Amino acid sequence: MFYSVRGKLIHTTSSNAVIECGGVGYNCQTTINTLKTLKINTEVMLYTHLNVREDAMELFGFATKAELDTFKTLISVSG
Questions:
Q1: Cβ within 8 Å of residue 53, ≥6 positions away
Q2: Nearest-CA neighbor of 31 among 66, 7, 76, 79?
Q3: Per-residue DSSP letters for 9-75?
Q4: CA geometry: angle 26, 22, 7, nearest 5 deg
Q5: I need a labelling partner for 14 at 20 to 30 A (CA). Which of 32, 33, 62, 73 fits?
Q6: Taking the alpha carbons of 6, 8, 46, 13 in that order, is the dihedral positive or negative?
Q7: pLDDT tens for residues 19-75?
Q8: Residue 45: which residues within 8 A CB-CB, separation 6 or more?
Q9: Cross-strand bridge partners of residue 51
């Protein structure tokens, strides 16, 4: 559904980045590799994957398309 988000990085934790786009803060779960490339209060862009489950909606964000593709491969493996 979402291909990417672009906006100002307003907050990070050890596994999340919050990007403000048009007045809305999107909380993206991400990797340490991606977090290393991001700087607070700068414009950033993350490639995203929206995971919709019965009990939650999770937005994952990655600095590179290759990292996103690897993530999609990993979650497609059953068992």
A1: none
A2: 66
A3: EEEE-SSEEEEEETTEEEEEE--HHHHHH--TTSEEEEEEEEEE-SS-EEEEEESSHHHHHHHHHHH
A4: 60
A5: 73
A6: negative
A7: 999 999 999 999 999 999 999 999 999 999 999 999 999 999 999 999 999 999 999
A8: 4, 5, 6
A9: 58
Give pTM, 2 decimals.
0.91
Q: Quick one: which H or E segment has residue 76?
A: helix 65-76
Q: 50: which 2 tokens?
A: 């929206």
Token digits for 30?
A: 């991400």
* Predicted pLDDT of residue 39: 97
